[in-house]
Design a protein that fits this description.
Keywords: Hydrolase. This is Peptidase m20. InterPro entries: ArgE/DapE_CS, Peptidase_M28, Peptidase_M42_aminopept. The chain is of the alpha+beta class. It has 16 helices and 23 strands. The strands form 5 sheets. Strands 11, 12, 13, 16, 17, 18, 19, 20 and 21 form a 9-stranded mixed beta sheet that branches. Strands 2-3-5-4 form a 4-stranded antiparallel beta sheet, with no helix packed on it.
Length: about 475
């Protein structure tokens, strides 16, 4: 593969600025790394010239394989204790493994301190060890942003990258596109910023009921690196699953996360999203937060789960349904096979803030204990006590409840849906994302509620109840 010289230099971790197509400025690179680059170029056939910190190259197109061979100097990365970075001591690229040097350097640039790295040498998974847990969490957020699949071992301050080492090079350029000022943003603020970016992107994509193909393709692309399996059923729903925790044991708990892809009216072309603090509105027509905000919360949650360590495996199923706004049509078509092992369903499609909707118009979505437990988990560590069980309107939650699944619908911060006055409070939407994160941090509490409900419901009666509800669903 042929690439321009600047792209190859970025992949190896060199820091420079582009003066013109032939001139690169290395004034911000360490003298140690400039000497390393000079050594590589002197052993090549590249016609080049140094003028102080400026590198002028005649041949801007290079064969990547030949370039990597030049960079693989003897002894490179042999200690593996490579990549320590702080404000006074820039990393020595000569000490970094060939395929991970650029990745480490970009993470350093964006505020993550590293102390060790290894590209796996083609025999095991690449990994990076960080200076602190905060650096580890921050790096995981950045990897999620560029869709680099990984596994976090927070107690060890380590990220294992679930890619072959040669694949790492393509992610370096994506990290290089992230702005330098991210390094000055706290990890908490970085997480919020990335959440808002996901939601804003979703709000710009059309997808009125029955015409969800564009938004479906967009969401599927996001899910590709976040799930183990994904399919689109005959009706057009996205159905996916992912298991977290030790793979040697079968999950004892399966949770469904659900929101819908369609909007009630088409998003008007050329409209602007108006932002007044945390409150967003549309300059014309609907905003589309019902239920793009819910989709954003679930995508963000799946990213968060990539960073968590689980003592026991848990399976997460995801249903992004279509045609919810015209009668829950997509949810009604989801197969019983997909739903049969689900213990609890968390739907993100409720207006306002703080509602844990447990039923509607004489229909219970869940047992009282389940709704109370969700509110309790959401309010842990929160003096505001935002979350409270309540009754609400119809949603896909009704369909999951008809299958005998303990189900709730959670507020996600939008108001005045289906009108041109629609608004979305990002503080409230982010609070819902934090509730879902708390659920997975406190799965023992959720399991205790489900166990209590099972003990109070004889097994035979529960099976009959499930079968009866499937019949109701099929007839509806």
């Amino acid at each position: 593969m042929v690439k321009i010289m600047s792209a190859l230099l970025v992949e190896q971790g060199f820091i420079f600025s582009q003066v013109d197509s032939r001139t690169l400025d290395f004034s911000n690179e360490s003298e140690l790394n400039v000497e390393f680059l000079k050594k590589i170029l002197n052993e090549s056939n590249c016609c080049h010239e140094w003028q102080g910190s400026l590198l002028i190259v005649e041949d801007t197109l290079w064969n990547e394989s030949e370039w990597l061979a030049l960079c693989a100097v003897p002894g490179r990365g042999r200690t593996e204790m490579c990549g320590y970075f702080d404000e006074e001591d820039n990393v020595s690229l000569a000490m970094l493994d060939l395929y991970i040097s650029g990745l480490v350097r970009q993470l350093n640039r964006l505020g993550c301190m590293t102390i060790m790295s290894c590209d796996g040498e083609g025999e095991r998974r690449p990994n990076i060890v960080f200076a602190t847990e905060n650096d580890t969490e921050r790096a995981a957020l950045l990897m999620v942003e560029v869709e680099l699949k990984h596994r976090v071992k927070l107690a060890r301050k380590t990220i294992v990258i679930l890619k072959e080492r040669k694949e790492l090079l393509s992610f370096v350029s994506l990290l290089n596109e992230l702005p330098e000022n991210l390094s000055a943003i706290s990890t908490e603020h970085l997480e919020r910023t990335m959440f808002e970016n996901v939601v804003e992107e979703l709000l710009e994509i059309p997808g009125v009921s029955g015409y969800e193909s564009i938004i479906r393709n967009h969401v599927m692309k996001k899910l590709a690196t976040l799930t183990d399996k994904m399919t689109v059923d005959d009706y057009g729903n996205i159905l996916a699953e992912v298991t977290f925790g030790r793979a040697c044991r079968e999950p004892s708990l399966t949770i469904l996360l659900n929101s819908h892809l369609d909007v009630v009216d088409e998003i008007e072309a050329g409209r602007e999203i108006l932002k007044c603090g945390p409150v967003w509105t549309s300059s014309s027509g609907i905003l589309g937060a019902d239920d793009r905000a819910g989709v954003g919360v679930i995508l963000h949650t799946l990213k968060q789960l990539q960073q968590m360590e689980f003592r026991a495996p848990v399976k997460v199923k995801i249903a992004f349904t279509v045609e919810e706004e015209v009668g829950l049509c997509g949810a009604k078509s989801v197969s019983s096979e997909f739903l049969e092992d689900i213990h609890a369903a968390l739907v993100v499609d409720r207006r306002g803030r703080g509602d844990v909707v447990t039923g509607t118009r004489g229909i219970d979505f869940c047992d009282e204990l389940f709704g109370e437990m969700l509110a309790l988990i959401g309010n842990l560590g929160d003096d505001e006590n935002r979350w409270e069980p309540t009754l609400g309107g119809s949603s896909d939650t009704r369909i999951w409840a008809q299958q005998g699944i303990q189900s709730v619908n959670l507020s996600v911060g939008y108001q005045y849906e289906h009108t041109s006055r629609e608004e979305l409070n990002l503080d409230d939407a982010f609070a819902t994302a934090n509730l879902l994160k708390k659920v997975f941090l406190h799965l023992d509490l959720l399991k205790s509620a489900l166990s209590g409900i099972r003990r109070a419901t004889p097994n035979t009666d529960e099976r009959l109840r499930r079968n009866g509800r499937k019949s109701v669903s099929a007839a509806s």
